Amino acid sequence: MNKVKVVYSKLYKEFGPQGWWPLTIKGNKTKHHVGPPKTDKHRFEIIIGAILTQNTNWKNVEKALYNLSRNNLIDPDKIRKTGQEKIAQLIRPAGYYNQKAERLKIVAYFIENNSNPKRQQLLDVKGIGPETADSILLYAYQKPYFVIDAYTKRIFERLGFKEDSYDGWQNLFTNNLKEDTQLFNEYHALLVELGKNHCKTKPLCNKCPIIRICKK
Ligand code: SF4
């Protein structure tokens, strides 16, 4: 079995199924929801989350999402018609709030005019890079795009892999796995779990489930 598959099976054995990322707002928190988004609102919630999570952690995103939800703004039409300053204040907890408010308005307009976007169309939208585009495609539209984030690069560099670009890292996974949305979804979530619990900036290798195949 290739190393990419070995890592997956070890992490799955250790952490179990994650059913990540689709979420729904519940009370003043977001709640994981297993499976594809059920409504357009739910899909838009995921798209907003993919933008808000740029350069911040999920706890801050939750607060911003909750503020938007409380103001009935998880809706592309309403985001488009609401003043940028008001949106910026509501999403303040997610940081870079002026920039992200502008991005939310741009993406709301885009989504209203593109109900089933292609990757290149998303990449042409201001503020959407490859990681955000692939998160939107994988989690909001259930398309098989492997998401490469900081955890993924850090873990696989420590495992001995080296790539120079986002596409290079993505090819490592797509060339070694079957093209499967659910698998890509689970694998990304498992890497986040490993990154949060063991493979931190300063790694805690003692109880790491893949220590035997790690080169660090
Ligand atoms: S053994 Fe340590 S460095 Fe290697 S993947 Fe695990 S936590 Fe990261």
Molecular structure report:
The protein has helices spanning 3-15, 40-52, 58-70, 76-81, 84-90, 97-113, 119-123, 130-140, 150-158, 166-174, 181-197, and strands at 23-26, 29-32. With 216 residues, the chain is mainly alpha-helical. It folds into two domains: 3-18 and 146-213, Helix-hairpin-Helix base-excision DNA repair enzymes (C-terminal) (Endonuclease Iii, domain 2); 37-140, Endonuclease III, domain 1. It has a two-stranded antiparallel ribbon. A hairpin with a 2-residue loop joins strand 1 and strand 2 (29-32). It is globular. It starts with a helix and ends in a 19-residue tail after the last helix. The relative contact order is 0.14. The structure holds iron/sulfur cluster. Iron/sulfur cluster is lined by residues 155, 158, 198-199, 203, 205, 208, 210-211, 214, 216.
